[in-house]
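Supplementary notes (optional reading)

For those who missed the lab, this is the record we used. Protein: Chaperone protein. Length: 124 residues.
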Amino acid sequence: MVELTVPAGIQHDTMLVMRGRGVRELQGSRRGNQIVHVKIEIPKTLSSKQKELMQAFQEEEEKKKAGGRGGGGCSSSSSFFTGGFQGRVKEAYARIKEYLGKEKEKEKEKEKKSKEKKKSSASA
């Protein structure tokens, strides 16, 4: 078995190379490289707990923007969130926030329709 530590912030479609951890040569003792193709899936639905966590994440991000560190994050993470990665995180967060907003609107519409049905059945 081969173990691999996935670096924090890894992106979809990233290729990781594990040198000397692949298949042995046919007539030799050397090993080739094992290539790991990272596929990240974003869930289509979120539980209420996951929604709460995303909202907490949003609040922490807003605290950072306001100048605070947002809960005393470790100093090594500040060098991690630099350059293009931070932009991708913001973009992903915006998409998730938009999706959750649409889900909330759908729930409100369902509630409204069920109330209208109750009113119409009560008046009939």
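If you only remember one thing from this example: The chain has three helices and two strands.
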